[in-house]
Amino acid sequence: MQYIEKYPTPPQDWDRWFTKADGIRSFDYKKDYDALTNLRLAKRFLLNEQHGLCAYCQQVIPIENASIEHVTPKEHNVNLSTNYYNLVVVCKTQMKDSEGKVHCDKQRLSSLISPIIFYRNVDASTTKTNSYFGAYADGSVFAKPNLDEQTKKQVEAFIEILNLNHSRLKETRAKEVLDGINAIFIHLPPHQKRAFWQNQYNRILQNRSYPFRQFLLSYIGSKIGIN
Ligand SMILES: [Zn+2]
Question: Tens digit of pLDDT for each residue in 173-197?
């Protein structure tokens, strides 16, 4: 659930990264993985573009735990399978929640999702009143109630299909990122509380690599009336 801002043109070597040593373009690079010696460079490029965060859950992903993901699955449009504007990187996490479900692409498989991560409204920091996601103190995310009906359905489906409220994700957002900030907040005198949220908001806004950045910006933004 982070906004992925693509460059106006693909990187210069993009096509080469998806071409086998025999000069043939691969449209199923999972099958051709061993033959695609430069695929790792494409993955690294995409990970840098996303500031090291999973496109869906926004956890920090080291390159070893990242995989290239087709936002529109190749089962639906094979021509998009190596298209720069359709590819992102996501985590390989396969931990199951209490319902036996995982999250991100391992959960969605080839289901269709709306490509909302390419829309600016995903980013709580750029769209002050119409951002798509809200955040609760228990670590869960939700579609903003003020969205138009169609967008709201798309955002809800996005959360559901990718299982972005997986119990472990919720726990990590609440305990590992929110608790630390709240622990400082509760000990502040009343006159410093608002400035504290504002400072936290600015700090996280400036750090594009901050884990669960959009979740935190949505949560803190609601405290200071931004989102
Ligand atoms: Zn993920």
Answer: 999 889 989 999 999 999 999 999 9
Q: What crossing angle do the helices spanning 190-206 and 213-223 adopt, rounded to 10°?
A: 150
Per-residue pLDDT, 124? 83
Length of the chain measured in residues: 227
Here the tokens at position 216 are: 């935190």
Distance 122 CA to ligand 1 centre (A): 16
Q: Which residues of the chain have pLDDT under 50?
A: none
Q: How remote is the CA of residue 116 from the centroid of ligand 1, in Å?
A: 15
Contacts of 119 (CB under 8 A, 6+ apart): 3, 132
Distance from the CA of 200 to the center of ligand 1, in angstroms? 24
Ligand 1 centre from 224 Cα, in Å? 28
Encoding tokens for residue 46?
Answer: 């995409």
Domain residue spans of the chain? 14-223
Helix (H) or strand (E) holding 171: helix 167-171
Segment (H or E) for 70 = strand 66-70
- The pLDDT tens digits of the residues spanning 146-177 come to 999 999 999 999 999 999 999 999 999 999 88
Tell me, in angstroms, the distance from the centre of ligand 1 to residue 9's CA: 26
Q: How far apart are CA 154 and CA 190, in angstroms?
A: 39
d(CA 61, ligand 1 centre) in Å? 8
